[in-house]
Task: structure prediction
Amino acid sequence: MRTSLRGAVAMTAAVLAPFLMAVALLPLRTSLTHTNLALLFVVVVVAVSALGKPLAGALAALSAAAWFDFFHTEPYQSFHIHDRADAETAVLLLLVGLAVSQLAARARVLRRVAVSDAEHLERLHATSRLVRSGDCSADELVERIREDLVEVLDLRGCRFVHGSTPAGGPLPRLEPDGSLRVEGWIWDLDRQGWPDGETELWAVAHGHCQGVFMMTPVPGVGPASPEARLVAVDLAGLAALALDGQKDLVQP
Result:
């Protein structure tokens, strides 16, 4: 709900903010060069791009170029441009606005990924410290790690099956390198997303499978980042070590 509201606000701002800027600059259109006016419109595009998705930034760039043309190039109150230099400025405003909107969107994605990766690593470190401390039972650790996997991989659900691989046909399996193994298929997890049904994540310690996390993804939601999947593999490994009763993990 929050995301959709923010997106609606960004789209509204993409249309209205350049228009309001164009109107506010009317008293200055004869005292400022068209290049300086265009730079002010770029500031508006950057502000809108920081709010929403790339589509909002692109729409803001189109709106800025249109209202710059309508209010600040001759003939005024017309979308025609007589002067070639003004036409070039309007085109450059559009192109720069589009480029800036995409860069801003990319920066938001990178910032979000960095924050998520830091949170996942902190989760892994906290669980590792808990394993070494010996303050809870193996079953309690497995339950905690099951909950961690739901958060890290953004799953709909996850259950743990003790022992070796569960009965039944081969299921998709998350491999130690974060890739997905699907029998009979070459599966590109990043491009194709999670397969339907459950996916296995083996809890392996010293070459022995102590159990399997049976993960159910949210339909229509893309896979977690490769870094998040590697954290998930390490969490499963911690569960296996706890179940294997590794006494050397307990601090003296």
Q: What stands out?
A: The CA atoms of residues 58 and 98 lie 5 Å apart. The first strand starts at residue 155 and ends at 162. Residues 2-110 form one domain.
